[in-house]
Amino acid sequence: MKGYPMRRFQFFAFAFATLATFASTSAAVAERYRDRAVPIEAVSALDLDRYLGKWHEIARFPNRFEKGCEGVTAEYGLRSDGKISVLNTCREGSPAGEASTAEGEAWLIEGGKLKVTFVPWLPFARGDYWVLWIDDAYSVVAIGNPAGRTGWILARDPQISTDLRAKAEAALTKNGYDVSKLYDVAQPPR
Question: What pTM was estimated for this model as a whole?
Answer without folding.
Answer: 0.84
